[in-house]
Specification:
The complex is a heterodimer.
Chain A lengths: L2 H9 L13 H30 L9 H30 L3 H31 L13 H32 L5 H26 L6
Helix pairs in contact in A: 2-5, 2-6, 3-4, 3-6, 4-5, 5-6
Chain B lengths: L1 H5 L9 H22 L5 H23 L7 H32 L3
The chains are: A mainly alpha, B mainly alpha.
Amino acid sequence: MHETDQQATLASPWAGGVSPFAMGSKKLGMWLFIISDALTFSVLLISYSYLRFANPDWPLPFPFSPAILFSTMMTVVLLASSLTMVMAVSAANRGERGKAVSWILATMLGGALFVGLHLTEWLHLIEEGVRPFSNPWGSPLFGAAFFGITGLHMTHVAIGVIYLGIISFGFGRGKFSSEDVEVSGLYWHFVDLVWMFVFPLIYLMSVKY
Amino acid sequence: MGTHAHTIESHPDTPARTFVWVWIWLVAITGFEVFLAYKHLPPNIMLTILLGLSVIKAGLIMSWFMHLKFERFSLVLLLVPALVFCICMILIFFFPDSSRLLNLRPH
């Protein structure tokens, strides 16, 4: 290829010479994964909303204390962990490895606290007799919908804590770059974002007055 | 690879104070949602308001925490319309069958 042709190809945004979105392939890959995962949760939440409105005997099992209090605390904890993750990404971009690792550890602590609170909340419901296909109050599908959606979200949080652990270890030892921290941050914020839909739909729409 | 690396743009360093403000807004909207849950509104109105507030919260998280605000607009055009289109398709395929099932239910 002639040198001027080659330069023209490299300058064109879609010819493979440059990154059209001005970002690395890892970050673009994570964004695409997030969109596909968002669709998984969308389907589950749309199906849940249908069940919620189609069943006149849908249980309303969440009293202010402990359920709503716990789930609100979980929301605040998850939001706080997103804030610490943003700080980790900023520190990583500035090249402050020690600070970035500390912020990631704080984020992991928030995630672990969220899972702990959520499991306690699950145990409350299990003690009250909720099972995947039966419960003492009404529509038997409540348990499947509740445990299915919140369980999938909790799995995402638990995987996120492990992922962040690996990233903080590698970043601290200089094996990973600040881009890797930012990509893990995208995943973490996405987990937070999903909860912003799960919390009102599952908990606030089924408040026991 | 060298040429490729030059095309990756770094984001401006946003002050921590800005992120803390976004977080305060997110917590405040959550508080308002909990307050609304005890207002005895009809379920469909409650669902609409809560979903609207959740979309605002999702927008804040995506723009500020996920830095979408600082990315090229072409990325937003790649991601958001695709997501909205797929959700519309889910709704279009889901609701005729689901409403038929509702009508089949013995009254």
